[in-house]
Every structure is written in C-alpha cells, then in structure tokens.
What does this fold into?
Amino acid sequence: MTSQMESDNHVRPRDRAVSQGLRLLIKDERAEAAAWRNYQDNPSPKTRAKLFERYQPFARKLAKQEWHKLGNLGLELPDCEQLAFEGLLQSIDRFEPQKGVPFNAFARLRIRGAIRNTLAKTTDATALYSAQKRIERDRFRSLKDEVKTNSDDPIEVLRELAVGIALGFMLESAEDAGLDAVPSDDPSAYEAASWQQLVSELNNRLDTLPERERAILEYHYKKDVQFSDIAKLFEVSKGRISQLHSQALKRLRASLSKFR
It folds into this structure.
C-alpha cells in the first residue's frame, strides 16, 4: 500500500493531468458533448456526418420498434429505417444543445413522427415504395449512366453493369456475413479460400479510395443509407452522390484487376 502511494506521488503532475484527461474523453457523455461542440464550432458535412454515425444505431432501434407496432400495415423494416434516418438528420439540424435537453429525448419524437407522418399521408401503407427497391434503382441508374457514356456496345454495357452490381454485392455481403461468407452453399475448399481472399482484398482496397468516395460506399453498402440521405449529409445533390458512387466502384474494379 505504501509503495503504491509512493509510486503515485512520483507521477509527474503533467502525466497525471494527461491520464485524467484521457479518462474524461473515454466517458461517453463527454465524447457526445465534444462531438456537438465540434459541430457547432465547425458546422461542416464531415462533422455532421460524425453526429449521424453516432446516433444511427439509436434511430435504427426506434425504427425497429415502430416497425413492430405497425408491421400489420405492411410497412417493411427498411422503409422504417430510411424514414428514421431522415428524422435523425432533421433532429441534428434543429437541435440546440445549450437548452439542456438530451439529444435522444429531443430526437425520439421527431424520428417517430417522421415514420408516422409518412403513414398518415398515404392512403395505403403497402403503396409505399419499398426502400430496398429505391436503393436498387439508385444503384442501377448510377452504374447505367456511367456505362452508357463509355460504351455503345450492348454486350459491353451488360458486362459492365454486372461487374458493378457484383462489387456492390460483395461490399454488402461482407458486412452482413463477415469475411467467411461464400457465394455457394457447398463450395470447395479452393472456392471458399478464393472468395474470402477476394472479399478481404476488396475491403483493403476500399480504404485506399478518396475519403468521400470511401464514405459513400460505406454509408450505402455497410450502413444501409440511401443516396438521398447521403446527399443531405454531404450537402450535395443526389446526382452528385450517384456520380461519386459509380466512380468509386470503377476505382475499386481497376484496383482489383491488378490483384492476382
């Protein structure tokens, strides 16, 4: 006990202050306050995206709760999640930390309202266009627009589209099932190893993309955020996000073509 006290007494004041500072940063409530302070001091798409990432699990949880309540109306879970993300973005824009209200309490009503208000505006919940269909449509248009500008050969266009869709599938399936996922129920040992190696390499190459392109692919394929919401996060048009999406997949394909 005495030796421990002696050891503590020999810790330099600066080192003790650094240690205490690190403990403060680890506390979640202080990290949350720092994130909001950073956003208020520097309101940019990047700091806004950091807040969105922080609260996305909270919004997803609320969406799931609402989906269970409204499931008998035919609303799909992805629809609820996309509506919740829209409510989250609105909450981030309107929140005033200095008023002393916790963000979760402030955002909860707005996220639930975003889901329920949409239902109130439609006469038939099943008529809501599926979020998954919107996502697939956006991806296809993004790839199609890029391919059409580069080739007039219909077979080449089809091949390019297939490659782009396959890359998206790999990014998505790697997040859902992990790097041990295989494209067959009963693969050979070679097929399994090759698939794991390719998916692993794809994720490594993802980190080499320009920051915004990498962020778009991660938001879209790994966090289920559709183009329109990503556009709001980065304060650009949906068309620009579509361009950057196809551009990022093109870079990945070129990078992987060198992989053997």
User: Anything to note?
Assistant: The chain has twelve helices and no strands.
